[in-house]
Amino acid sequence: MPIDDLRIRTDRRDVAADALTASMFAVLFVAILLARPGSAMAAPPEKSMRGAMVAFIETLPESQRDVAVAPINAPDRGRWTYLAGPRTGLRIGDLDEAARAAFDRFLDQALSPKGRDRVREILRVEPVEDRGGGVRTGPGEYWIRIHGDPTADGSAWAWRLEGHHLVLNTAVVDGRIVSVTPFFLGASPARHPKFGEPLAIEDQAAATFLASLDPILAATANGIGPAPGDIRSGTTPDARRPNGSGLRGDRLTEPQRAALEAIVFGLLDFWPEASTGHLRERWRAQDPARIDFGWAGAGTRSGPHYWRIDSPVLLVEFSNTSPSFDHAHLVLRTPGDEFPGR
Q1: What are residue 311's DSSP bridge partners?
Q2: What are the boundaries of each domain within the chain?
Q3: Pairing of strands 292-297, 176-179
Q4: Rounded to an integer, what distance in angstroms lies between the CA atom of residue 327 and that of residue 125?
Q5: CA dist., res. 38 & res. 53, Å (int)
Q6: Sequence-ordered alpha helix ranges (H) in 126-190
Q7: What is the pLDDT of residues 233-283, one digit of tens each?
C-alpha cells in the first residue's frame, strides 16, 4: 500500500477518533451539568420529599396510618407547641425498624445536610426524663403528623415533626413548598458540658451585630423594653408580632443589614435552598424600614437576654432569660402566612 494511502487512512481514523472523543466529552459534560443540584434533571425538593413521605407511609400498618395522617383542614392543623407532652400524630418511639429507617430517609430529603446536623445537636442535649402524668422527654418522644394526601400530584399537604424543643413544619400547595414555619429549636441545658451550645451560632451572630453598632444605634436597639420571660410570638396559628420598636433596618449600613440577613437566612438553610427561595426573595424585596432589630436584658451573651429580628416577612426570636440562664428558645415564624389550607 502506498505511503500516501496509509497516511490518508490514518488521518481519517484520527479524525474519526477525535470526533468520537469530542462527542464523548460533550455527553459527559452534559451529564455532569444536568446532575448538578438545581439542574433540570435534579428532582425538585417537593417531589423528592413527597416520594420519601409516601414511601414512609407505606411502611406503616393501617392502625398507625390512621393515627399519622389527617385531612389538610383537620382541627389540629394550626395547633403546635414546644412544651413536653403527647401530641396528635404518630409517636416516633412507636415505629418499627423499617418505618424508622424510612422516616430517616424522608428527613434526608426534607432537610438540608446542615438542617439534619443541627436537629441532631438539639436531640443530643435533650434529657431522657419521665416527668409524670404521661409526660416524657427523650429521642422517642416526638410525633409525626401528616395533613392532606401526599400521594396525589398537586394536592395540598403538610407534615409536622414536633416534641419538646423541636418543631418542624412544611406545607405544600400545587406542588410547591410554600411554608416551612413555625420552626422552633430549644435547648435545656443551653450549654451542655459534653455537647456544647446548640443555639450558639444564631445567638453569637446577634451579639456580634449588637456590638458592631455605635452607642446611639445600640441604645435604640435596646429600646424594646425589659426582657420577656420567653418568646413573645406565642404558639397561636398566627404569630403575635412583638411589642416595642427597636432599631429599623433603614438606619443600618449595607454590611449591617447583611449581618441580620445572614442570621435569618442561616435558619432557612435548614431546608434545601430551593425550598425557601421564595422567602429569601420576599425578604430582600421588602423595605428595610420594616425590618426591626431589638435586644433586651444583659448587654452581652454573659447574662439572661432576649433578641429578635422582626419584619412582615419573617420573624426570628431568641430567649435565654430564665433565672438559671440555661434554657434557650429560638423560633422562626412567617407572620400571617402559615398553615395554608386549614
Answers
A1: none
A2: 1-42, 45-187, 200-333
A3: unpaired
A4: 11
A5: 21
A6: none
A7: 999 999 999 877 999 999 999 999 999 999 999 999 999 999 999 999 999
